[in-house]
Amino acid sequence: MLTTLPNLLTLSRIAAIPLVIITFYIPSPWGPWIGCCLFALAGFTDWLDGKLARLWEQQSELGRFLDPIADKLLVAAILFMLAALQRVSAPTIFPALVILGREILVSGLREHLATLKVRVPSSRLAKWKTGIQMGAIGVLLVGDAGPAFLPVTLIGELMLWAAAVLTLITGYDYLRAGLDHMSEETPPVKAAKPSSAT
């Protein structure tokens, strides 16, 4: 049901996207820090909605559908804005593209496997990837507004590269699992022979 608290928390992450985008146009240091705080709050709701859904036994197909979409939209929008406003170096666009490409691949695989009634659970390594990726984005949102004695943007970029490496590994794992199921071809249905008239 759409109005359950876990689903509303998921929808709040989608609603947070335009708010985070607006912070890109608020002068430093307020804009970067507000954007980081909003993103951190959205990340907290990602953990909280799953926790509450399991605790209150409100897990649903709608929630399973909305949750990854909300996460991917939020991540894609922020990475796009960081690249478009040149708040990351040119080479860092590569790991961003790897991350987005993997998300599209996994989404397509999950959709296909869902039609086969096959569910691919998230691995421990994939959870580490997500944690490093979310941390990297939060750091990059702060960027030059961070402490002057720390190379904040560089730290965020290195974290994003690390997330991209894990992205390739986990993406391959998902692809291999998906191909295993796709290789199990169902035999073609034979057309019934028309009966001869008597």
What characteristics describe this protein?
disordered C terminus, Four Helix Bundle (Hemerythrin (Met), subunit A), 198 residues, 72% helix, mainly alpha
Please provide a brief summary of the model:
Helix content is 72%, strand content 0%. It has six helices and no strands.
Average pLDDT, all residues: 83
**Residues in helices, as a percent range:** over 70%
- The name CATH uses for the topology is Four Helix Bundle (Hemerythrin (Met), subunit A)
User: What would you say the CATH architecture is?
Assistant: Up-down Bundle
User: Total domains, how many?
Assistant: 1
Q: Assign an overall shape.
A: globular
Q: CATH superfamily, please?
A: CDP-alcohol phosphotransferase transmembrane (TM) domain
Question: Beta-sheet strand percentage?
Answer: under 5%
Tally the beta strands.
0
Count of separate DSSP helical elements:
6
Q: In sequence order, what are the helices and strands, one letter per element? A: HHHHHH
- Give me the Rg, rounded: 21 Å
Q: What class do helices, strands and sheet pairing give?
A: mainly alpha
Major sheet characteristics: none
Provide the low-confidence segments as ranges.
187-198
CATH top level label:
Mainly Alpha
- Separation of the first and last Cα atoms: 57 Å
Q: What do you see in this structure?
A:
It is a single chain. The chain is an all-alpha fold. It has one domain (5-180): CDP-alcohol phosphotransferase transmembrane (TM) domain (Four Helix Bundle (Hemerythrin (Met), subunit A)), CATH 1.20.120.1760. Helix content is 72%, strand content 0%. The chain has six helices and no strands. It has helices spanning 5-23, 30-55, 61-84, 93-115, 124-142, 152-182. Helix 1 (5-23) runs parallel beside helix 3 (61-84). The longest helix has 31 residues, at 152-182. The protein is globular, with a radius of gyration of 21 Å. Mean pLDDT is 83; it is low at 187-198.
